[in-house]
Design goal:
The chain has 12 helices and no strands. With about 220 residues, the protein is mostly helical.
Amino acid sequence: MTVWPAIWLTLKLAALTTAILMAIALPLGWWLATTKARTRPLFEAITALPLVLPPTVLGFYLLILMRPDAPFGGLWVSVTGQTLAFSFSGLVLASVIYSLPFAVQPMQTAFAAVPSSAMEAARTLGASPRDAFLTVALPMARRGFLTGAVLSFAHTVGEFGVILMVGGNIPGRTRVISIEIFNAVETLDYATAHVLSAWLLVMSLAVLTVVYFFNRQGGARLG
């Protein structure tokens, strides 16, 4: 059984999902860190919901959303001519929603740690809010951006429940590494399961090591 299509599909899915999540997490994390709106706890709860919601529940409601007779799913079919369910595009949408907290929360924490005095100093020197964000807040929050990107990528690589619910098990289209491991165990192909599981284990350990290393380096510089 060849596993390279599943590996390639997984890396492609993780890279695209991470890119989309970073584009979302940057403005959303900044807004959550700086807004004084009364609705902020609600938006924080919505953002963190995938952390506590069972993947099967999230996958089920995403399937409902993607149905051709649903408003969103029907709009997608009318624009692209394809259904979202059991497609790579559906996997991307599900992965973005499922990994959202892993991208937003590190960004929010990093932006919240930016001293207000630094932003005020930039404005005093004539910087516009946009310039102050780009030249002061964003560079100071770069560790949060890196952490969010790394965690989002790793979390997407390890997805199973949501992927299986939304994408099924279609070779070359929706069969990612986690599902390939599931198939290998079901067919008693433990050698393939061991290789893929060990690869995911090593990658996860490496990801966490990188995150903790950069967080420690940043903390040391601040100290």
